Amino acid sequence: MFWGALEWILLGAGGVGAIVYGVRRHRPARKAPWWLLAGSLAALAAGDASYAYRQMGLADTFYLIMFGLTALCLLQFTRGGPLLGDRVRLIDLLALGCSTLLIVWVFVIGTDGRVDMVSPADVIGDLLLIGVAGRLVAAERRNVAAWLLLAGALGLLAGDVGYPLARGPLTESAYVVLYTCWGLAALHPSMARLTEPAPNRHSPWKVRWAVLLAVSAAGPPTVLLIEALRGEVEDGLVIAVTGVLTLLLTITRLADSIRQHSQALTREHGLRTATAALVAAADRPAVDAAVRAAVAQLLPPHSVRRVSLAEELSPTELPPTPVGPAARSWWLKAADPDDRTLVCPLRPEPLDVARPSGGVLIITGRREALVAGHDALEVLAGQAALALDRISLVEAVGRRDSDLYLRAVIRNTADLMAVIDADQRIRYASPALRDLFGQDELPPLATLDELLHPDDRATVRDALRSRGDGTVHCSLQRADLTQVLIELTYRDLREDRLVQGLVVTMRDISRNHDSAERHPHAEQGGEMPAWVNRRSAQQRFRY
């Protein structure tokens, strides 16, 4: 008796220890199913030890606890994983199978002479566990952990049927298969894939499935009514257990539907609020604030670690992209093993094309929460891309209108003036500047460097790169290599929303110098003229 109880306690402790070690080593996304599985093995070991001491009432209590924990465990495995992204149909079929098995056991096997030693409640429960484990195997046939869970469930069925009929070491070893297989399932690396989060697949509502669920829920009360009308209820226990199982499955089915509906309403409200905020955003900081507020509303509290909206990123600056065709989003690892980083490139919806200036939305947080809101976050990134492009277009139109207004106002002015971008490309040149170079229009991509003498380009470039206003003395060079001495005054308006560039005003100072000084960079040969010393002094004192 003692050695028999010790054997089951050691088997249970070994299985529980294997599950604890496997969870800590492989770190699955959701640990709750594995803890429930460990609890069911502990309850089963306690029940077997009580059975070895002939404590039948206590053993049945532990067996009932074991079955409940195992049922919860397998239902947890079917929630939000890649193997069973949608468990609606599975729950409907389990409820129908539960009622069908009850009817077969009561009216078919009972009529032919039911074996009293075999517990019908245990057999029905074992078949349901086999059905769930078999569904896991069917979803991914290469998952070793799923096969081991199925083998353990089959061992439990073999033990519940074979041991009451023929007690002995052979039938008793079926329970050893259960302990061993469920412990090995947690040790195999494929156990992490059983609980990897996956997007919910919403099934459309169909009348036939609703009728099927209603029929399944009505099965146990109908059997109870028939037996009561016959005069005596002989299968009250199995009817009660089956009724509880069917009721739990029905409640789970309704809870899943309510949860999906609530999540859909939350996403819809969050995206609608974010869209309104993005439409009203007038600048980039407002877009960033709207995106952060939307992420906080779409995802559960305390599940987001970092949100970053990088609106201007070149392809080389983007986070590592997966190999293959362009994806709307991809995943990266985070510092915390339980976290993930979701990268959503800014692709305007519904155009599904990349923005010319690039950009990406990066969110780091709990991977289960990110997977659940994956589709909504992709839509949010698209809406943010549209808002940023709209702001860029409004600014570009404003600058164009400003340039056209400036062109119309100073059409007849004699001032040499230009508006250049941060990269020194000339966006606007006054008519006097174009006349100075003898051109009706400057080339579309002309830069200020191309108008300057090569010896002055570095000086002017360094001055314009610095922040603030200033004045530089330099010389322009025409196409015929003649030079014009100018006093270049620039205003730094790169932070101005309408200009976003530098306004350059040039004053011709060539007439203030003699004819020889109008070519300051010309090569001199022979005897140095007297004006060289005078020009050297002028250069020292900046003209």
Q: Could you describe the largest sheet, including whether it forms a barrel? A: 5 strands, antiparallel
Strand arrangement across the biggest beta sheet: 6-5-9-8-7
- Write the element-wise H/E pattern from the N-terminal end onward: HHHHHHHHHHEEEEHHEEHHEEEH
User: Beta fraction of the residues?
Assistant: 5-15%
Task: Explain how this protein is built.
- Helices cover 57% and strands 11% of the residues.
- It contains 15 helices and nine strands.
- The strands form two sheets. It has a five-stranded antiparallel sheet with strand order 6-5-9-8-7. The chain has a four-stranded antiparallel sheet with strand order 1-4-3-2.
- It is elongated.
- It starts with a helix and ends with a helix.
- The relative contact order is 0.06.
- Keywords: Membrane, Transmembrane, Transmembrane helix.
- InterPro entries: PAS, PAS-like_dom_sf, PAS_4.
- The chain crosses the membrane at residues 6-23, 59-78, 90-111, 117-137, 144-163, 175-195, 207-226, 238-255.
- It comes from Actinoplanes regularis.
SSE order and pairing:
Blueprint lengths: L1 H25 L5 H21 L3 H22 L10 H26 L6 H20 L4 H22 L3 H19 L19 H24 L5 H45 L3 H15 L5 E7 L19 E4 L5 E7 L14 E7 H6 L1 H36 L6 E5 L5 E4 L1 H6 L17 H12 L4 E8 L5 E11 L7 E8 L22 H10 L3
Antiparallel strand pairs: 1-4, 2-3, 3-4, 5-6, 5-9, 7-8, 8-9
Keywords: Membrane, Transmembrane, Transmembrane helix
Organism: Actinoplanes regularis
Protein name: PAS domain S-box-containing protein
